[in-house]
């Protein structure tokens, strides 16, 4: 595991809280008890904050609403659709509800609806193999074909491992085909970083995110202020996305 990957996993609320508690135990044993107490309280506060649904709705909502979901019929006609690999929260409709494979909305479904609505004649799928198996691009291409998109309307970019590489390698394909304007498809949470990365390449993307996932569920007993395991799980992607935006800004990638 690289240092950036280690740090990205460390800032996940549950991981960071456990780490702070372990450090606090060591400090307590070595008689740094006031510092240990401060770290313990900080760890518990961080854990409680991200276990509250209202925290995820606020922090995640800020990113998701940066580029609101727009129905295919209301989006402009462009030269292409670019779909980024990824599976935010397993593509579930709502992060605060039980996972149901039958109700998921993958990014490819969003792209297929755009294609069916005549928003673009070409789809570029971007994503390498993350585990040594089939690339995300090839799997997305198969999903698009199952949704009725012809194979000759799909171009695969299967070298990118990061959002930055998605933008760099997709830009080369788009320029090769003389494409200036295109619809960019990714999760609503990921869209701000994706848009900034593609714009940094001098491209003109039109945001076409999948529907937001961090929304108040219809459950009658849902509480904004009671700690919830799903909220804590949701915090993983939210915190890592904010960290990703910061890292991309510092590196000049966005």
How are the secondary structure elements laid out?
Layout: H1 3-10, H2 13-29, H3 33-51, H4 53-64, E1 80-84, H5 107-116, E2 123-126, H6 136-146, E3 154-157, H7 163-176, E4 181-185, H8 191-200, E5 204-207, H9 229-251
Parallel strand pairs: 1-2, 1-4, 2-3, 4-5
Question: If you had to describe this structure to a student in words, what would you say it looks like?
Answer:
It is a single chain. The chain is an alpha/beta fold and 254 residues long. It contains 9 helices and 5 strands; from the N terminus they run H-H-H-H-E-H-E-H-E-H-E-H-E-H. It has helices spanning 3-10, 13-29, 33-51, 53-64, 107-116, 136-146, 163-176, 191-200, 229-251, and strands at 80-84, 123-126, 154-157, 181-185, 204-207. It has a 5-stranded parallel beta sheet, sandwiched between helices. Helix 8 (191-200) links the parallel strand 4 and strand 5 (204-207). Helix 4 (53-64) runs parallel beside helix 9 (229-251), helix 5 packs across helix 6 and helix 7 (163-176) crosses helix 8 (191-200). The chain starts with a helix and ends with a helix.
